[in-house]
């Protein structure tokens, strides 16, 4: 009889990574909606001010060695620069000039990028299943956003904002790899808290300069959207993602990253009454099925 604990760890990781991508599906929509009301650096500074306060309180409950940077300090700094200082401003800036469709397509390359980076930087082996799943996920994303129409994909137009989004996708891949390395020795709470503490001064200074060019427009709707981004995509999303990376590895978590456009379509149907098509089921199933096959397919039978 095989120990069932690997199954429990992997299944928990799958649940958490999907919670994270579901939370982030709302972030992309709201980030584009807020583009006229708040600058990308200011929005990033606000969301991580709240996250830093929350995770710092949680950090005090962790063992003393987790509250120190120790020998991981450079890896934690890399996490901070990539996932907090770099990714969010690039994403919001790209969304000011690009479209949600282009964003989904570009982000679809992230699992492939992550797999390559994980092998190069932390020598994390990438299985053939993970690479194939990443390719299937990219096909699924292309099918979702095009409705299965090749003509739609051939007619896509790209702009300078898409280059910014490509940079964001690469930065996020680096963040996932750095987080995997840090969480070999500490919890997701400690990893997020310590990286946020390093990031916040840089974000605060950048936000002050940005406010001189992009003033805040604090309508009630804007405040509600910012509050949601602080609580759901940031606190819940980052903790769930890092816990999933700890359980599945950087490559294993990233095979589910392409569920972002799928959950975006599902939220559109639920909240906005947008129709769900057969292509959503087919290509969404390709993304999720490929991720499950890559993550759970190599575990031993429980019989």
List the helices and strands and how they pair.
Blueprint: H1 5-33, H2 40-59, H3 73-97, H4 100-107, H5 110-121, H6 128-146, H7 150-154, H8 160-182, H9 188-211, H10 220-254, H11 259-272, H12 278-296
Helix pairs in contact: 1-10, 1-11, 2-3, 2-9, 2-10, 3-8, 3-9, 4-8, 5-8, 5-10, 6-12, 8-10, 9-10
Would you mind describing this structure in some detail?
The chain is an all-alpha fold and 303 residues long. The protein has one domain. The chain has 12 helices and no strands.
Structural class: mainly alpha
Instruction: Please report the total strand number as a whole number.
Output: 0
Radius of gyration, CA atoms, in whole angstroms: 19 Å
Basic shape:
globular
Helix content: over 70%
Report how far the terminal alpha carbons are from each other. 6 Å
Unreliable segments (pLDDT under 50, ≥5 consecutive)?
A: none
List the helices and strands in order. Answer: HHHHHHHHHHHH
What average pLDDT do the residues reach?
A: 79
Oligomer: single chain
Tally of alpha and pi helices: 12
Largest sheet: none
Number of domains: 1
Relative strand content: under 5%
Give a quick summary of the entry.
Helix content is 77%, strand content 0%. It is mostly helical.
Keyphrases for this structure?
303 residues, 0% strand, globular
């Amino acid at each position: 009889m095989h120990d069932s604990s690997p199954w429990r760890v992997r299944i928990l990781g799958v649940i958490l990574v999907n919670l994270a991508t579901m939370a982030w599906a709302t972030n992309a929509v709201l980030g584009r909606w807020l583009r006229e009301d708040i600058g990308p650096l200011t929005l990033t500074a606000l969301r991580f001010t709240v996250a830093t306060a929350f995770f710092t309180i949680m950090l005090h409950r962790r063992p003393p060695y987790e509250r120190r940077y120790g020998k991981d300090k450079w890896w934690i700094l890399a996490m901070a620069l990539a996932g907090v200082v770099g990714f969010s401003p690039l994403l919001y800036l790209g969304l000011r000039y690009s479209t949600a469709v282009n964003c989904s397509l570009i982000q679809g390359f992230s699992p492939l990028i992550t797999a390559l980076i994980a092998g190069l930087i932390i020598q994390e082996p990438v299985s053939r299943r993970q690479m194939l799943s990443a390719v299937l996920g990219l096909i699924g994303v292309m099918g979702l956003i095009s409705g299965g129409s090749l003509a739609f994909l051939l007619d896509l137009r790209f702009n300078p904002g898409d280059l910014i989004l490509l940079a964001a996708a690469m930065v996020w891949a680096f963040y996932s790899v750095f987080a995997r390395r840090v969480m070999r020795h500490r919890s997701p709470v400690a990893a997020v808290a310590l990286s946020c503490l390093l990031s916040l001064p840089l974000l605060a200074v950048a936000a002050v300069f940005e406010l001189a060019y992009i003033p805040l427009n604090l309508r009630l709707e804007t405040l509600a959207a910012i509050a949601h981004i602080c609580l759901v995509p940031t606190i819940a999303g980052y903790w769930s993602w890092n816990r999933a990376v700890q359980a599945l590895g950087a490559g294993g978590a990233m095979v589910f990253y392409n569920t972002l456009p799928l959950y975006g379509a599902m939220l559109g149907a639920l909240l906005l009454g947008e129709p769900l098509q057969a292509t959503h089921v087919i290509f969404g199933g390709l993304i999720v099925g490929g991720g499950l096959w890559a993550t759970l397919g190599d575990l031993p039978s429980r019989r």
